[in-house]
Amino acid sequence: MSKANIGGMAIASGLMTGVGGIKTSVGTAGANTTSNTTGVSTGIAFALGVGEYLITCILGVTTAATTTAPRFAFLASGGLVAGSFDMQADVSTTAVASQPSNSNTLGTFTAATTGQGATQRPVVITARVRVTTAGTVTLQLQSEVSGSAVTMVEGCGYAVRVA
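-> structure tokens emitted (163 positions)
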């Protein structure tokens, strides 16, 4: 079994234990979708063991129009069961304003927030999950409007900490 210690967190077989955080970035291709019924993987995914975790994602997002907004959800796979889950996505709609939306169920997309447009704007997602059965969570991206593109730019990142 290989182990590493990154930012004070021991990593063994892909499961996080200990105290601290791990930071990584999304791959080279940004996520893009025009679907308002199906999510697309953002490339942000991680295995979690039994325990409680705090997750922060900082993303750059553009939309095809100011009347289109991104929606986000964390999906569980690999047998992951959450005893509790809460997330908030703060979507920057202009240079000085942002709008929050919430979800308290894995797999449920946040409510849409319009007004973003082609200018890259930040999205900050914070979540807390209490895992009762180990598995994987993946951040998904969805468009508010069918046929209108939302794109997460490359180089976005996340941090996971044991609560």
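The mean pLDDT is 79.
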